[in-house]
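Exercise: predict the fold of this chain.
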Amino acid sequence: MSCLAKVMAYKKTLTMGVLILLAVLAVAIAVPIATNSDTDNSLAPQVNQFFGRTVLDEVPLIDGHNDLPWNLYNYERNQINKFELNADLKAHPVWGPATNSHTDIPRLQAGKVGAQFWVAYVGCNNQYKDAVERTLEQIDVIKRMVRKYSQYMRYVTSTEGIMAAFREGKIGSLIAVEGGHSMDSRLAVLRMFYELGVRYMTLTHSCNTPWADASPIDDQPEATLRNVTGWGRNVLWEMNRLGMLIDVSHVSHGVMVEVLEHTKAPVIFSHSSSYSVFNHHRNVRDDVLKQLVQNNGIIMVNFYPGFVGGRSIDNVIEHLNYIKSVTGPNHIGLGGDFDGVTEVPDDLDDVSKYPDLFDMLAEGVYKNGTTFAPWTREELRKLAGENLLRVFRDVEGVRDSMVDVEPYEDLIPYQDFVDAGVAEQPCMSDLDIHKQ
């Protein structure tokens, strides 16, 4: 072949190669254009879209406060052998119409709840009467409920237990006592609660105890504030020694401050919101939130419209965003207060709606259309459960460091009952008799 022929053949081959390359590129460009022009273009924006609910498959969603056991008492008198929780209670003739019923197993599963503190609550009207016995009944019904539905729930008492339940696809079920009146001012009862599986106690409910003030006192200018009494500090330290989380929801502002000053371990607010967002004595002021950061504790945000200032899911998100702006993302969680309230926010009206909340936080858009800084995956993991797990581990660590500390056994002084207004000051003759 002549040189000219070789050159012509080479050019022809090169031209064909270029044409083939251009054809491939044209197809590569045309296919996505055709796909995107299809009437269903839902796949395109989802390539990199982050759905907040996906974190609930990665870490356990740990809710700090659910009052289902209280409803078991109210509606079933704790007789649960023939009661079916694994059913749609919205269709139940008694539970369905009840405005304070928000929980059943199908809705817990739909809500991707990974762990739940079930609350053993008895009313303040039981204080100085049968509060201990009634609390024991509530602890009992929680244990029986978990045992009955062991296919879906696992009784746990530790961080390791929570994670083990999550790996099994079960709801880690912990016990909490709501209100220091349940221990009847007896440290021995507190210790027995721990032995029975109680892993947090709220220091007060809406009533003062002889050793700590409840939050309503903050709206009573004429009241004498006692905050936490000297003996009340023994309660804190014994809880530290046991490894029981101290819950400062429901307590007065003064008690919050003093507990954070004297505790040896991080504390929790199991179901509280921000006072700056909505001024209510049940909410937490900014100075306490800043103390909480130093304590390395956690505030688990309440959903109750009476505490968040409205009936929209937007109101709850406003509290979450504000608290995060004060504390950062490491000190915030969720404590819905379901089954303990008669009003709930729209779009966050039962335990099935947590995934929707996480989607909204990840998207950064309120229901009303305004926007806020989207929460990152890392922040949502912390909100869901990582923060509570950290706090709980720290409390367990303090317990382990106090293994050689003897139990606190001082009896509450009679004067604490007098100062609380529930006992009379002994007369001088009585004092003289005691001296003899």
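Check your answer against the key: The chain has one domain: 61-401.
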